[in-house]
Amino acid sequence: MKRVGKALIYAVLFVSLLGFVGYDFLNPTKGFSEEKKATKEVTKEEKKAAKETTAEKKEGKAEKKAAAPAKKKAKKVGPPPVVMVSPQVNELAKQLSVDIMGYGFEPEQEIRILFTDEDGMQTDIGYALTPEPKTNKSGAFFTTWTCDEFIKAKLVKEGAFQLTVTNPEFKPIAETYVFFKPAKKVEKKEKKEEKKEEKKEKKEGGEKKEKKE
After folding, report:
1. Hey, how many other C-beta atoms are within 10 angstroms of the C-beta on 44?
2. Is 116 helix (H, G, I), strand (E, B) or coil?
3. Pairing mode, if any, of strands 159-166 and 141-146?
4. CB neighbours of residue 111 within 10 Å
5. How crowded is residue 113: how many other Cβ atoms within 10 Å of its Cβ?
6. Which of 20, 105, 189, 210 could hold 139 in an S-S bridge, CB 3.0 to 4.6 Å?
7. How much helix, strand and coil, in percent to the nearest 5, is found in the chain?
């Protein structure tokens, strides 16, 4: 009986000890499964953090692209447009025309030509140009300036005058100079002699009429 009592006492103590230590002592796989769960949670958090960092990097790159100034395509720079006159030196006369030509302009571009007088005033001479100045497919143009009215108005005188080619908004593109000089005195003498001859012919014609009568 004493042995049975002792056995019961030991059994009770063992059961209570098991209750104190817990079920984990008898089921070691439970702790291992919890460790797995913890590692899974850590990996999930790491993946989230990695995704967030990649997203932040992408946003940073996008912001840099937006902030960076747009690169403009460099245009091919060629020689500047050129305008010329022919003849460059002209004798002042009642009837005078000057050829104006140019190249290196934009193809099929409408242009304006301005004349600058001795006072620095600019005049659009388009109405005195034939044909109306416009570049061709190669960026060249040719026109003739009739200077008669400018000479009569004494805008064109002896000296050098500037001609400026502009776009339709009057933005200067190219410029050149045209020179004017007085007519030769020899021509004036010839004109006087011609007038004298005309007068003589008239007088002779009048005398012949009187004789007939």
Report:
1. 10
2. strand
3. unpaired
4. 22
5. 22
6. 105
7. 45, 25, 30
Q: Which is it for strands 89-91 and 172-181: parallel, antiparallel or unpaired?
A: parallel
Contact yes or no for 84/105 (Cβ under 8 A): no
Max Cα separation, the chain? 198
Angstrom CA distances, 41 to 24, 52, 56, stand at 22, 17, 23
> Which among 165, 182, 167, 82 has a CA at the least distance from the CA of 122?
165
Give a three-class secondary structure readout of 21-49.
HCHHHCCHHHHHHHHHHHHHHHHHHHHHH
Residue spans of the chain under pLDDT 50: 20-25, 32
Residue 116 β-bridge partners:
122, 162
Continuous H helices in 147-184: 148-152
Per-residue model confidence (pLDDT) at position 161? 97
3-state SS of 175-207? EEEEEEECCCHHHHHHHHHHHHHHHHHHHHHHH
- Give the burial string for 134-163 (b: 16+ CB within 10 Å, else e): ebeeebebebebebeebbeeebbeeeebeb
pTM comes to 0.54
d(CA 170, CA 176) in angstroms, rounded, equals 16
